[in-house]
Structure formats: C-alpha cells, structure tokens
Specification:
Keywords: S-adenosyl-L-methionine. Pfam families: TrmO_N. This protein is mostly beta strands. The protein is built from 2 helices and 8 strands, in the order ββββββββαα. Strand 6 and strand 7 form a beta hairpin. The radius of gyration is 17 Å and the shape is globular.
Length: about 150
C-alpha cells in the first residue's frame, strides 16, 4: 500500500488554507460548488511508535477509564490519520481557504472530500451517554468549551 501526500495544511496569522501540490490542482475542479469539505491528514507531530496503540486511558473527562482507539477521534491509533470537517471560504488555484481546521501547520494532507448531506448526515445517530452533552452540529461545535472535555497528560 502506498499513500501519497497531496499537499500541506497552512496555519497563518491571516487564516488557514490547504496548499495542494500543483499536480493535484485539477482535482479541485467543482469543489467550490460545495460549502464544506472533509480533510484527511496525518498527525505528523504525533507519529510516534509509542502512540501507535489500540487503547487510550481516559481521554475524556466524562468518559470511561479506558477506550479503544477506534472509539476516539484522537491521534493514538495504528495509523495517525485525522479527519476534520471545514467550511470552504474560497479556492484560488491550488489553495483552498478554510474558516477553521484543527490541524497543525504543515500537516501532510492525504485527501480532500466534499461534504454531502446524502452521505454524511445521519438523522438517527446515537452515541454514548458520557458525550451526550456535546454539540450536535459542526456549527455549534465552535462555541463549545472543548478544553473542558479532554484529559491532558504531560
């Protein structure tokens, strides 16, 4: 299996954007017709052998003492691949400007996919009780105090 980096996430004082390698620019044709996208990227700062695990000790304040990595969105996983939704502001050549993205500067981009309600909205979603107070939409997520939800260890 081979995965090709298609670009880098850029976090600047003026905002965040995806900088695709020029050979992938044509892949952006039609993307500006969508309001949101998904970005798959590599947790490059956390690509550490010790973090390539399958369980995590109490990552969430209100969560159980131990969770399997596939029940989390964090970087501890067999392959440190991240998935984030983002609102598209504009696209210029090989640059995709976003409203916000929870990725580090220079994170390698693995793929971009448009957000489509027919594939991505689940009307009858059910999650565990310990996270039932979390926002129920991307839009409300920005107002939520996420820092109070995670256990951080030094």
């Amino acid at each position: 299996m081979k995965i090709n980096e298609i670009g880098k996430v850029k976090q600047t004082e003026s905002g965040v954007y995806l900088e695709l390698s020029p050979e992938y620019q044509e892949g952006l044709i039609g993307l500006s017709d969508f309001s949101h996208l998904y970005v798959l990227y590599w947790f490059h700062h956390l690509d550490i052998t010790e973090l390539r695990g399958t369980t995590v000790g109490k990552p969430y304040v209100h969560g159980p003492e131990k969770l399997g990595t596939f029940a989390t969105r964090g970087p501890v996983r067999p392959n440190p691949i991240a998935l984030s939704a983002a609102k598209i502001i504009k696209i210029e050549e090989n640059l995709v400007y976003l409203e916000y993205l929870d990725a580090e500067n220079d994170s390698p981009i693995l793929d971009i996919k448009p957000y489509t309600a027919s594939s991505d909205v689940i009307e009858n979603f059910e999650g565990p009780a310990w996270c039932s107070h979390w926002p129920q939409s991307y839009e409300r997520s920005g107002e939520f105090d996420w820092s109070a939800e995670f256990n951080f260890t030094e």
